[in-house]
Write a structure and sequence with these properties.
globular
């Protein structure tokens, strides 16, 4: 799914993969929300709980009129930040000599 440089620092690869998984969970929740997934389903509940925990800091950063927009912005912002920061740290670790 994702490609990681084979010569990179192993710790950097782990950090990048963790960031990717965090963003994947957040993106999955956005998709489940937009598709109106059954919130009584255990998998949906798990993804929602994990995404809410991961995005707790960004959920009400902006106030939007539409509920779907609030979800996309709140959880999407967290996903982008995790990807950016995680990969920046991983790249920085990979360039150390």
């Amino acid at each position: 799914m994702f490609r990681y440089r084979t010569g990179a620092n192993p710790a950097g690869r782990v950090i990048a993969m963790i960031a990717d998984v965090m963003a994947l969970i957040l993106g999955l929740w956005i998709l489940l929300y937009l598709l109106d997934a059954n919130r009584a389903n255990r998998l949906v509940q798990f993804v929602h709980d994990a995404a809410t925990w991961l995005a707790g800091w960004s959920l009400h950063l902006f106030t939007l009129d539409q509920a779907w927009a609030q979800v996309v912005v709140g959880y999407g912002l967290a996903a982008v930040v995790y990807l950016f920061v995680g990969h920046a740290i991983a790249n920085r670790m990979g360039h150390r000599h």
